Structure to design on (921 residues):
């Protein structure tokens, strides 16, 4: 993904902001185009458009750079009004990774401005970095960058310091579910925390918005709801920072007002002229459905002697596999290395390897790289959107108009040099009698192409500029009819939003999952995710109950890298075939499987049960034991693969890039004399202790003394991760010894700085600091100090290096004890923001939204006093949510949690400093 692909020759245009032009060049290596400068001026004025309609290849994703530089400009002007966090959302995991790489390159320039590659811009880059650091509340990089495309891919930077400017790149599911207080895989602590940080002080950039209109509807509905909340709270002292939303698309279907687009004088830019004039000649090839594969292969093979790069697009994974197989057969032996397959149903791990190392894919990412022999990439829509593929020619089946425009954007992107791309479109929609909504849209597209073709000889001029002119002469309703069907939006109501915001309640009748609100009431068949883990068999053999199972998979979550997904009916069919293949050698064999619902709750099932006709697998994650097999070398489900192909790993939870550097799974054997030996679950490596830098995060008992021959031996499954990571995941279990007084002072200091940097109203700032001073008072109880193994007599601890099992607390929640102490304080009774202070104390570990369970009670107070406090928690939550709105209240809670996490992390780092090569300054 490039901001632009050549140097703009008119960077000295009189209307251009000179400082912006120099800074843009320093950050990206390219001079800005006129439209980018015009958009920057609007950002500086906080006049954000609702949508940007910029043609493919003209760097529309540079909106990230424009936001960052406008934020710097506002900070230098002395008043920041833009949101400090930008969430860049696109519904393609490959594009998420590509966008992350792009922003990483930008950040490297800010972190290391004197690097020889860009040292000519060192002074400008240093000044930008200095201004950005001035906005932050903690030391660290000038800008945080995180990726949300699968739980542990998140490096946590975006939620460490809420004052630091941050760019978060992710998918609709990963960011959208968190915005709705229902983050996939989030526990009680994370749901409101993430909703607050995403739902306030954030600019949400919805890329390729035409593909996911239901999500655009949802964002607009939430924005409107927050505006109503702001009017209800009112006054200059409101802490609310409502989200701002911008839709990006090169293929707009309309719907968003205030659209920013090219203007006539933008044609003065050489890059714009070249992109819009990039030659593409489209030819139609009528073919009945049963001959489409053969015709596609024929058209593709026509380029085989031309030493070029050919993209082949089809609509379904099955068709892609058929074309891939037929092309390999037609080209003959030895052609395999020249052909690659990309579909959305490939497991994340293999898809990453394709993107990172496959020679065909890499060739298509480089416009200038020559090839010795023609290469072919066969792809579904997974390769249509947002990826900077640049082919010489395209062969594809018929599709909807919006999809076709996206495909055309992946061929001869740069134009110039006399290049002319050939686009062969194969199919005949007129032969189908009965049509679905999708087929009706494809037929409308076919009809439109035929009309355009009638005015030419044999080919349609499909260059971007000419295509925009053709579309400009078509009635809007005709274009809408040719676009992919728009799913109906699920109606968002106050009752639904309230039910999702009650995050301390795990199960609530009538509270729906959020999928329909993220993707609409689509008629698309449901999907299922599949992953493989070695510990499934060990947990099942040990008889782990569903409580332990749930605990484990919330701690050691399934990442996107581990998963593949496909239509539920296809998954069931493949797994039924897999079980049948196993039963050819053992007719009674079956496998335990773990089912995870959308909220991450885990339960047991069996392979023979889930393949049943009536078993509901829709939108579930299925975790198979590695003994089940079922994966082919391309990373796709295979009913015949009872054993994995050579070189293919089924369990990739700790592969490089999947969080393996931050966590590990170990079997711990404790002998009769108390000695422990640790065996790595995957490698079998045996050692006397957990590796340096890691600490125990979760432990599940696999064998108790009375279950083994040696009655004193035990066997546990342990998840170990870095102490720093553990502190960010949950400050309550930070792996560093810290007294209560020291920790309280650290948190109060941190929240004061955060509130100051964010320029919060004085009453809110005072409430946050007061809550920090009280938040952990409930740890000064014998039961909690015993849990923290505090036997040194050094005064009460707030953090410990090691803890007893949580059952040692008997259900007690220290924040409930803190609340009781604060409620009894005479001075605090006169605090004007007492309600907010008490709620922040109670909610800082995810409870009090709206309740505590009775087992959380503090036995140093009477039952009546505990009951009264618990009832007050619920009433107080209702009052505050009504006053501030759902997301503002969650954000205020998050600010205190961030201060707590930072203080805990700093305590860990003081004992376990990062190596010099891991520190970003």
């Amino acid at each position: 993904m490039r901001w632009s692909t050549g140097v703009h020759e008119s960077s000295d245009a009189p209307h251009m902001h000179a400082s912006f032009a120099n800074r843009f060049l320093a950050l990206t290596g390219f001079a800005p185009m006129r439209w980018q400068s015009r958009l920057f001026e609007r950002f500086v004025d906080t006049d954000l458009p609702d949508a940007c309609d910029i043609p493919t290849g003209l760097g529309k994703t540079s909106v990230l750079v424009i936001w960052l530089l406008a934020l710097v400009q506002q900070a230098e002007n002395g008043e920041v009004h833009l949101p400090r966090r930008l969430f860049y959302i696109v519904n393609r995991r490959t594009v998420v990774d590509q966008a992350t790489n792009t922003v990483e390159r930008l950040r490297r320039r800010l972190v290391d401005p004197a690097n020889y590659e860009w040292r000519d811009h060192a002074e400008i880059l240093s000044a930008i970095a200095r201004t950005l650091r001035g906005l932050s509340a903690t030391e660290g990089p000038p800008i945080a960058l995180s990726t949300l495309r699968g739980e542990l891919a998140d490096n946590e930077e975006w939620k460490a310091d809420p004052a630091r400017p941050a760019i978060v790149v992710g998918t609709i599911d990963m960011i959208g579910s968190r915005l709705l207080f229902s983050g996939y895989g989030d526990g009680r602590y994370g749901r409101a925390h993430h909703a607050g940080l995403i739902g306030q002080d954030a600019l949400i950039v919805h890329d390729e918005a035409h593909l996911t209109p239901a999500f655009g509807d949802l964002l607009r509905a939430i924005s409107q709801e927050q505006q109503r909340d702001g009017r209800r709270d009112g006054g200059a002292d409101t802490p609310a920072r409502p989200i701002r939303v911008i839709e990006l698309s090169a293929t707009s279907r309309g719907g968003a007002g205030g659209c920013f687009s090219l203007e006539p004088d933008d044609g003065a830019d050489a890059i714009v002229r070249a992109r819009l004039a990039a030659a593409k000649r489209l030819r139609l090839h009528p073919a009945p459905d049963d001959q489409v594969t053969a015709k596609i292969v024929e058209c593709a093979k026509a380029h085989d002697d031309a030493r070029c790069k050919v993209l082949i697009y089809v609509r379904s994974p099955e068709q892609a596999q058929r074309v891939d197989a037929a092309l390999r057969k037609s080209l003959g032996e030895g052609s395999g290395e020249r052909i690659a397959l990309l579909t959305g149903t490939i497991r994340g791990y293999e898809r990453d390897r394709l993107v990172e190392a496959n020679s065909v894919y890499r060739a298509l990412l480089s416009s200038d790289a020559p090839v010795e022999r023609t290469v072919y990439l066969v792809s579904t829509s997974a390769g249509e959107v947002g990826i900077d593929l640049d082919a010489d020619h395209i062969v594809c089946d018929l599709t909807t108009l919006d999809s076709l425009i996206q495909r055309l954007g992946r061929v001869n992107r740069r134009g110039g040099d006399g290049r002319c791309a050939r686009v062969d479109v194969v199919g005949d929609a007129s032969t189908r009698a009965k049509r679905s909504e999708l087929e009706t849209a494809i037929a409308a597209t076919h009809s439109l192409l035929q009309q355009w073709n009638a005015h030419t000889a044999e080919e349609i001029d499909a260059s971007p500029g000419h295509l925009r002119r053709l579309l400009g002469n078509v009635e809007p309703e005709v274009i809408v009819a040719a676009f992919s069907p728009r799913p109906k939006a699920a109606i968002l109501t106050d009752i639904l939003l309230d039910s999702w915001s009650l995050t301390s309640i795990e199960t609530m009748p009538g509270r729906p999952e959020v999928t329909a609100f993220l993707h609409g009431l689509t008629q698309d068949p449901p999907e299922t995710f599949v992953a493989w883990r070695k510990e499934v068999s060990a947990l099942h053999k040990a008889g782990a109950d569903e409580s332990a199972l749930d605990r484990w998979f919330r701690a050691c979550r399934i990442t996107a890298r581990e998963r593949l997904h496909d239509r539920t009916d296809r998954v069931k069919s493949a797994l039924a075939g897999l079980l049948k293949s196993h039963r050819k050698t053992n007719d009674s064999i079956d496998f335990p499987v773990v089912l995870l619902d959308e909220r991450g709750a885990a339960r047991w099932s069996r392979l023979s049960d889930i393949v049943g006709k009536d078993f509901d697998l829709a939108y579930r994650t299925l975790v198979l034991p590695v003994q089940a097999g079922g994966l082919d070398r391309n990373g796709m489900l295979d009913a015949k693969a009872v054993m994995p192909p050579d070189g293919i790993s089924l369990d990739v939870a700790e592969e490089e890039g999947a969080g393996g550097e931050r966590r590990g799974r170990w079997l711990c054997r404790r002998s009769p004399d108390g000695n422990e030996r640790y065996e790595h679950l995957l490698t079998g490596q045996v050692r006397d202790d957990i590796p340096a830098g890691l600490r125990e995060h979760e432990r599940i008992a696999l064998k108790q003394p009375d279950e083994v021959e040696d009655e004193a031996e035990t066997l546990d499954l342990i998840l170990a991760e870095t102490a720093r990571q553990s502190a960010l995941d949950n400050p309550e279990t930070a792996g560093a010894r810290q007294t209560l007084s020291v920790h309280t002072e650290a948190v109060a200091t941190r929240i004061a700085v955060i509130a100051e940097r964010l320029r919060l109203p004085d009453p809110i700032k005072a409430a946050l600091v007061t809550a920090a001073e009280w938040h952990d008072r409930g740890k000064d109880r014998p039961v909690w100090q015993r849990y923290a193994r505090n036997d040194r007599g050094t005064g009460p601890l707030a953090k410990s290096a090691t803890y007893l099992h949580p059952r040692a607390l008997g259900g007690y929640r220290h924040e409930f004890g803190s609340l009781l102490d604060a409620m009894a304080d005479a001075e605090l009774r006169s605090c004007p923001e007492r309600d907010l202070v008490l709620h922040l104390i109670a909610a800082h570990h995810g409870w009090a939204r709206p309740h505590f369970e009775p087992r959380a009670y503090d036995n140093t107070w009477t039952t009546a006093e505990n009951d009264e406090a618990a009832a007050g928690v619920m009433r107080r939550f209702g009052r505050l949510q009504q006053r501030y709105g759902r997301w503002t209240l969650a954000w205020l809670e998050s600010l205190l949690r961030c201060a707590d996490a930072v203080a805990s992390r700093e305590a860990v780092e003081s004992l376990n400093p990062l190596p010099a090569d891991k520190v970003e300054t």
